[in-house]
Amino acid sequence: MMLLYGTDVLTAAAREGTALPGFVAYNLETVQAIVAAAETSGRPVLLQAGSSAFRHAGREALMALALDAARRSTARIGVHLDHSRDLAEITACIEAGYTSVMVDGSHLPFAENVALTRAAVRRAHDAGVWVEAELGALAGDEDVSTGATAAGGSMTDPGQAAEFVAATGADALAVAVGNVHGFTAEPVRLDLDRLERIGALVPVPLVLHGASGLPEAELLGALRRGVAKVNVNAELRRSYLAAVVSVLPEALPGSDTVVTWSAARDAVTATALRVTELLASRG
Fold it and tell me: Is 36 a residue whose pLDDT tops 90?
């Protein structure tokens, strides 16, 4: 099946009150697990082989791995660059065949975020690739965070969000409404009123980062207010590591690495499948 190009799936999800899952991959097993979940569910997914994961696996290796797995799959899979601040990296992924990219200028002053995002949009749209941008900042680190609180970030302003999308031409907007990267000591409570105001003013689908550990009622409330893409990372990592720990007593005597990799892959598949079905449930 062809790679999942275009924003039709996103706009349909926003209309239906569902969301497209964006699952972050770091290595062979997590790529395979995400693809398996997409094939089992029959639902479209985004395989996010992104900027931070490149530091572990190498950009060329992980790009090739993700694109090859998605192209060979019978499922509808887009390959997405997550959290990139580098136009050269964005360009490399576009040229390699990525179906979408996220340009993250959330750390910049508003005008500089607009300029960076506009430059990314121009490069991407020339190649038929859609762009996710971010306004507002999430607390926590996307790769290792735990115990983060929303107080460490800055909320997205609804009026500024509308101005930002109009000025940049971004196809989707990641927002900060109390969500954080990683797991938290206390349950996260989203500012759903703020999210609703953003959705009323912004004409493109919204994206929610930091969905791992988010109470189901909060997540489904976000979907009802225009969130059409949900990123999941820490929950997959936790499933992976828990599976490795559970089989280590069996694996260590024979130095059986394969049993650990297989268990981790199966655990990530199960978690991704559960999340995919929840996001398709319409509450």
Answer: yes
207-226: pLDDT as tens digits? 999 877 788 888 999 999 99
Tokens of 201: 């003013």
Tell how many helices (H) and how many strands (E) occur in the chain: 11, 8
The token duo for 150 is 């929303």
**Contact present, 129 and 99 (Cβ < 8 Å):** yes
Amino acid at 12: A
Q: What is the DSSP string of 92-156?
A: HHHHHT-SEEEE--TTS-HHHHHHHHHHHHHHHHHTT-EEEEEESB-SS-TTT-BS--GGGSBPP
Per-residue pLDDT at 139 exceeds 90: no
Q: Are 230 and 220 in contact (CB under 8 A)?
A: no
Is 141 among the catalytic positions?
Answer: no
What does R_g of the chain's alpha carbons equal in angstroms? 18
Q: Which long-range contacts (CB under 8 A, 24 or more apart) does 121-127 make?
A: 121/168, 121/169, 121/170, 121/171, 123/87, 123/90, 123/91, 123/94, 124/90, 124/94, 124/100, 125/169, 127/94, 127/95
Which one is catalytic: 68, 82, 157, 266? 82
As a whole number of angstroms, the longest Cα–Cα distance in the chain is 60
CA atoms within 13 A on the CB side of 213: 23
Band (148; pLDDT cuts 50, 70, 90): very low
- Yes or no: say if 157 and 197 are a contact pair by the CB < 8 Å rule: no
